[in-house]
């Protein structure tokens, strides 16, 4: 848009409207309060307003918009899951992602890269075949490819892995993509605000109040706010919220770390994941290698970084991409992952009337942002779970109806 | 590097240990209700707290019980699993 660029050049900065308008004062009561201003909270607010006409909504965020896991993830979007429930759910999300830039009139830098999940063992190959078959059954572009195909696409990779654990093949998922995570949160937030939703940053929910088993509002560090319905979308803080209502879940919190190298010239267009080696890597448009591994070994509510993580990760990276031994790590950070025993999310209604849960996003929830917002908005507006999220109810553990998604986790756990 | 002081072994790098999960009292197999069993298998309070946990020392093959706070990551008690705090859980 060169003309638009020229227009900007002649404008004074004060002529340009702010991306987000000034925050309004916190009201005494709302129809819906969403706890957590991450991607999921913003997406839910957006679809509540856009698709259900519910605009008397406040999103309460203890920090700043997208400052949680949304702004910390490695931005991978894919739908090559293992269970039918997962595949259907994540594929709807992927479709929504493709149109978001247009929906928002904001570039979310959605970039389709192709996604290789490497297999280094016979059992990993078997899981790849299994996933490919389930995926194909649901019309998803996913196939097992041989070593030559991988080598052609990723020429700098050492297929023998330093002779340690040679690559035997991979699951290839052509629609696998990356997107700018902040822009996703900002786009949804602006779209929600334009439709009347209020976003209150630096507003922390400290308690949830009920009367006769029904939600009546939330206590915050800025006072009590009445609400007919309350939705928790706080990812790694979920157990602190459910504790307020004495709701038990199987969620445990583990830190998940990531890091980037200094930028190098573009050499790798695809996303490469190795489940057996616990690494995944993609190259950002700035040229940095964005890298991650498995969650930290023990439960911890913290976003601290550790040397153990970089040591372990770079050790595996050097087997896969020997030239990375010359690169410097530029930044390292962590988020808090809310892990469930079956590696599937927990979504929908709870035993407390008017309280809804969107949680258990672990290491895999960024890709679910649009569909989670959309299905939760439906669930809240109609007070019935959306068809796509029925299998993800909290009661599935009591009913022994788990959604075993562990085999599709991008890195081993 | 994080260190932990163990009885008889002394100061050891935490990286020598493998996490074995929370110490939880297993309900009596004979009399347990279905609800109590699912609670034991799945449901737990995941909020920050002080937990008793299994930790395995790889070089010696010894299981320890740590008392650790999941918010501060501070380990306040270390005992051998076979004569330790297990009975209190
Ligand atoms: C290092 C890392 C890499 C990842 N990589 C990927 C990936 O490649 N692909 C993928 O799909 N997923 C990935 N994930 C997972 C993904 O980031 C998360 O699942 C997802 O961002 C969760 O979004 P959310 O909106 O639910 O939570 P968040 O973005 O964490 O938002 C929750 C918000 O709630 C706020 N909050 C918490 N408690 C309160 C309270 N009491 N009152 C008010 N506000 C509160 C927090 O401040 C936070 O801003 C990764 C995660 C990490 C940490």
From TrEMBL, chain A:
Question: GO molecular function terms here?
Answer: oxidoreductase activity
**Pfam families in UniProt:** DAO
Say if the entry is tagged with keyword Lyase. no
Show the GO cellular component annotation of the record: cytoplasm
Q: Which PROSITE patterns match?
A: RHODANESE_3 (PS50206)
| InterPro entries assigned | FAD-dep_OxRdtase (IPR006076), FAD/NAD-bd_sf (IPR036188), Rhodanese-like_dom (IPR001763)
Q: SUPFAM superfamilies in the record, alphabetically?
A: FAD-linked reductases, C-terminal domain, FAD/NAD(P)-binding domain
Q: Which residues form the Rhodanese domain?
A: 2-76
Query: Which UniProt keyword terms apply here?
Result: Oxidoreductase
Task: Write the protein's name.
Answer: FAD-dependent oxidoreductase
Task: Please report the organism this UniProt entry assigns to the protein.
Answer: Thiomicrorhabdus xiamenensis
TrEMBL record, chain B:
Q: So which residues are the signal peptide here? A: none
Instruction: Name the domain of life.
Output: Bacteria
The record's section on Gene3D superfamilies has: Folate-binding superfamily
GO BP terms: namely: tetrahydrofolate metabolic process
Q: Name one Pfam family in it.
A: SoxD
Q: Name one GO molecular function term.
A: sarcosine oxidase activity
What is the name attached to this protein's record?
Answer: Sarcosine oxidase subunit delta
Q: Recall the taxonomic lineage recorded for the source organism.
A: Bacteria, Pseudomonadati, Pseudomonadota, Gammaproteobacteria, Thiotrichales
